[in-house]
Fold this protein.
Amino acid sequence: MAAINVTNVRVLNNPAMFKDAFKFEITFECLTPLPDDLEWKIIYVGSSENSSFDQVLDSVLIGPLQYGTMRFVFEADGPDINKIPSEEVVGITAVILTCSYWEQEFFRIGYYANNQYTDPELMENLPPVPIPEKIQRTILADRPRISRFPINWSENPKNVQTLQTASSTSS
């Protein structure tokens, strides 16, 4: 049984300019007390061809947790345009929000995002060097891709591995 149930994620500032912060309001239920932190991350997909251009925009730790419903706003600066191939700045990309416990990802929600120039002339004739101040980001918030993964909520895998390593070296 999952210890955390994510009940709602809202994209708050949408559309926004390319350099503006991402803002997500996250609501979740804690179904059993958790002694350690949840780790939330916002990841910007910088290239459809190569994951090395993905950027972790921010991560936040929340915990320990008791029973109940929690809500918070997770805000992260926009991506570093210099770390994105210039030919992939404008167009469709994705932003991903993940949550992990004990370094085990159990929740992922991905959104397609469309980056385009607000000036039709620039859309017709893309400049060779992107101009981030003139690019608008629109997240397709009504069509998220949600994945949930089963994890071990009761034993920290690091502790189990440490115990196994210690017992095998003492034999």
Summary: DSSP finds two helices and ten strands in the chain.
